[in-house]
Amino acid sequence: KTMQYLQLLKEKQVDGMIFTSETLKEEYYNFIKEMEIPMVLLSSESYDFPVPFVKVNDQHAAYSATEYLIKKGHEKIGMISGNANDPVAGLPRINGVKQAMQANNFPVHDHQIVVETGFGFEDGINGFHRLIKQFPDITAIFAASDEIALGVISAAYQLNVKVPDDISLIGYDNLSIAEMSTPPLTSVHQPLYDMGAKATELVFEMINQPEKLVESRIFQHEIKERDSVKDLSSN
């Protein structure tokens, strides 16, 4: 499907491209390279090809989310990840969780991290069932996406597990669905509007000054606090 989109963009004779929300595979890179147009990756990064990117530091953001739960008094923390092979949203976020736990002298065991195939609602449902089965005394979950987090809330509701009274939850992306959920979801915020604007700016820069080397940009994340995390620190 991505190749069909790229073919369409080639036919439209676009002058530049922002590539987002997918891993830059070799066939995509070669196709775009043949088009001889500038490209910037948004919310993504390639370790294989020399393409400038605009994103947050995913490992650091996952570290912050886990540390937020720890500061709220949680020690038995689990994670539901999407595809671990995703170079941006997979392993870096898993490593961020492990790093935060270890930095606070909490052991990290395999049963604390569940890896699903994707980052969607169904992955959250399946991941929650697996996680509470193998880690029944868990008090908090870091979900690697807001959609996974919504799946967790849905699965918890079906099992009469209350968020945040019985289990706390933090998501990732701070999509509009985060404030629509019940309870409203605490989430890692990426400044997507500003990131998109910067990616566009870089593409224009590359079009207008093709000899100039543009620098990739890392944007700052923040925790958007809502009502899905219970504070155990005063207990």
TrEMBL record:
Sorted UniProt keywords: DNA-binding, Transcription, Transcription regulation
Record-annotated Transcriptional regulator LacI/GalR-like sensor domain positions: 67-229
Pfam families in alphabetical order: Peripla_BP_3 (PF13377)
Molecular function in Gene Ontology: DNA-binding transcription factor activity; transcription cis-regulatory region binding
Regions crossing the membrane: none
SUPFAM superfamilies according to UniProt: Periplasmic binding protein-like I
Protein name: LacI family transcriptional regulator
Source organism (scientific name): Gracilibacillus halophilus YIM-C55.5
